Every structure is written in structure tokens, then in C-alpha cells.
Fold:
Amino acid sequence: MVCKACDKPKPNYRKGLWSPEEDEKLRDYILRHGHGCWSALPAKAGLHRNGKSCRLRWINYLRPGLKHGMFSPEEEETVMSLHATLGNKWSRIARHLPGRTDNEVKNYWNSYLKKRVEAGAKEGPGTPAPPATSSGAGDTEDSRQSAKPGEDGAAAADGPADSGGSSEPRESSSADSSCLTGPPAAACRPHAPPVAPKVMFADWLDMDVVDCLGGGPGAAAPGLDAASAGAVGASDQHHRQVMSQGSVQVDGPCGVDVSLHGFGDSGASCWEFQEHFDGIGIGIDQMSTTGFCDLLSMSDYFGLN
DNA sequence: AATCCGAACAACCGCCACTTA
DNA sequence: GTAAGTGGCGGTTGTTCGGAT
Structure:
């Protein structure tokens, strides 16, 4: 991992919330060159942040394919199920939730699911808190829906209303994308960043590309152990979604292969990234060939590494 | 209308595992 | 074999907002 391109850490790193300009710089750089060596990235990208901060920002917020907003009942069930078996292994849990980050899962657990589980435990040891159902997540769920919807509202306001939901358009639960596809800004978090609407990875990788990359919707889940399979059995659609993932390799800035991964979906147009790539001179068709197909690899997703 | 409080979320910090020279 | 450096993970904190009083 030692990388000659990595400069010594600079002092005076900026901290705190990321500005839209910083986001833009980071995204531009990674989309052009891949992240490569994180510690060297800030200097190259013209950011006054440390590599860790950049990495976190990319992984938790900027990375294409991320899903923001409401957890679907299936996702909740998956989180609770996996947490029961894995404990606080948020990254492991997140691997079973396409488009969710460990940080998001962790936050969601700490702020919501944990309380529900505890409440359920108080009601009766043998009766764990019932997961939200597709017919309605209950009053607490409703309150959360109105409270949390998140940045996708900004996306809906700034871009196509269906851009967010296209992350899991196939066989996805309706509740999952309730905020992504549904209530516009009014129902979503008002203080969400007004820029950089959330764009699902599916929006910028055509399904045909995914098929070419080898992942097909009907592919099997290699190496998925029984426990994991059982744990996430309730959210089978997630597996099928993951089956559409592809993975390619490109040369990273440090001379190593940087694995970039795809997450396929319908042929929904990539309205933001199309615009973005146009801006930086990269054709959308170039993405598939240059490997700008970042999300989770199959192996990562299934915890095979 | 102003203030307080809890919730939600983004980001930081510290530790650990892994890789490479 | 060892040390240095990086990346990743989990815990925790800080900030912002909405709702209640």
C-alpha cells in the first residue's frame, strides 16, 4: 500500500462539512482518475482535506449508486436480522444492502432501529420488535418518513423525479423508494444540500453495459454462505439487484489496478452524470470502457474478501 | 414568537489489519 | 523479520433541523 505518490500529510487540513465546491472537486477527480491512493488524492484534487476525509466523503456521500432516504421494510428487516447475527459489523451488514453505506446503516440503527428493537424486547422477550411491513411501517415509521426523507428531496427538486428510485427499479419494494420517487422536496429534509442531487448508479450505467460486464439478473450468487443467505433471504430482490453488478479494472494513479464496480439497472438516462461528464469532456459511453462503474463488487457485497 | 428538546445525519477520531519496502 | 504507511471499520461527537411547549 505504500505509494510513492503519497505525500506526507499536510497540516491545516480543513474539517467540518463539505462545501459543494469541495464535493465537485473530489467527484471530478475520482471520476477522472479513480481514487487510487487516498492520502495523495487531496493534493492532486486540490482539496485541503486529509485522505481519510476524502475517502469517507466519497464512500458515504458522493459515490454513485448510493441510496439515500427511507429504509424499506425489507432493508430494515435485513439490518435487524444481520445485526442479530453479526452484531455491530456495520460494513458487513451494509454489504447486504445495495446502495447503503455502513455509516448510514449505523446511524439508522442507532437512531431508530435500536430503539424499536429495545421497545420490542421490553414488550416481550420472545417477541422482537416487528419489522415494518410493506403495508405501512406503523406510526413510528410514519413519523420517520416525515422527518427523515433526506437529500433525495433535493434531487427530486433539482432533477428528474424518478432519478433516485431508479436505483432499484426492478422488483424493488415500493416503500423503499418512497422518498426517492415520491414526495418531492416538501416531504424531504429541507436542509439537504441544494446541489448535487443524489444520483443512483443505475442512472449512469446502462443495463446493456452491465450485461456485457458479465453480471446478469439471473446469475447465481457465488459463495453466498448459508447464514448470509438466510439472513437476507427476506430481501431476495436485493440479491437479484446485486446480480446485475459488474466489475472492471482501471489503472489507478498509483500504478495499481483500481477496482471499479458497476451496479446495473434499467436503461434510465443518467441525467446528472451525463451532464457532469459532458462538462468534463468524458462521454457517457466512455464510462463503461474507462471503468467508471463504482459501487460494490460482488465479492465485497457478499463478504468474500 | 421565542425557546427548548429530541431526532437525524454528517463527519471525525482512534484503533486495527494488511501491504510493502 | 521489522517498520512504516494506508485503508477500513466502529464508536463517538457535533451540527442542524423540526416539533413541542
